[in-house]
Amino acid sequence: MSSAGLLNVRAVLAHGQCSLLAVTLIRPPVAKVFVGQVPEAVVKAIPYLYTLCAHAQRAAAQAACAAALGEQRRPVDDAALWVEMLHENFWRLLLDWPKALDLEPAQDAFIAWRALRMSEDCLAATQKLWRETLGELAEKCLEKLVDRDSLAAHPAPALDADGWLAYWQGRSEHAPPIAPPLSVKIAYRARLAEVAAALKALADGTPFPIALAGGNGWGVGQSATARGILTHAVHIVDGKVARYRVWAPTDLHFADDSALSALLAGRQFSSKNAAAQALDQAILALDPCLPYRVELNDA
Hints:
By secondary structure, the chain is α+β, with helices and mostly antiparallel strands. The protein has 10 helices and 7 strands. The chain has a 4-stranded antiparallel beta sheet with strand order 3-4-5-6. Strands 2-1-7 form a 3-stranded mixed beta sheet, with helices on one face. Strand 3 and strand 4 (218-225) form a beta hairpin. The protein is globular, with a radius of gyration of 20 Å. The mean pLDDT is 94.
């Protein structure tokens, strides 16, 4: 198991349909190490312990601690956050999705862009990658996505720091709901739309989406990421962390089998191989931020 954890998916193929038996998400108790520490130490440690989307992790942690202490949120490097979001999206769209659809990944183009992403040429390189590589590859991927299609668009995830604060404090029994994609193809299109929006935001100097809520020692901070909304929550007592919690999009999408089952519901498969490919694409549509294992058996 990696330091981020592990996702296990077990399914069975019966009468041409793929049914889930179990979706098990295993996470190491990383947040426990923050208990007893001062908030500043937690904010400094976060990017080293949560290395994926490290900029967003730091921003959410700092926002949560600031809210709990009644302080102003520190300024963030908006450009770095947009580039981080683009990096995660390009990784999926240029490398992982083509592989899942038996297409050639655009590895060289991705590596070339990645080498420039921290330079002054980042914006031009990103626009070039979108124009010359991703557009054509995306068309090929969409042609090969044999899935329920719809004109419906998957709504962009919304920040809701107040709702999560109520849940964190126990004033609400349920966490704010998330809207899983209606189909794999819709999820893929939503990712393309997110790249277009992030590219425009990078060009325009748009502030990165961050929210916070809290006070009197209770704080919630949120940041957008390529996978959805990241939420950090803290309870500070006598200047030290008494409780800390992180809810990543993966934790919400794979809390149970409902989101994954919905993407497979009603689909008919002619072979075990076709079902395995569809299951892998459905997992990719929900985009876990950690390694996963899939077990598909015949009934």
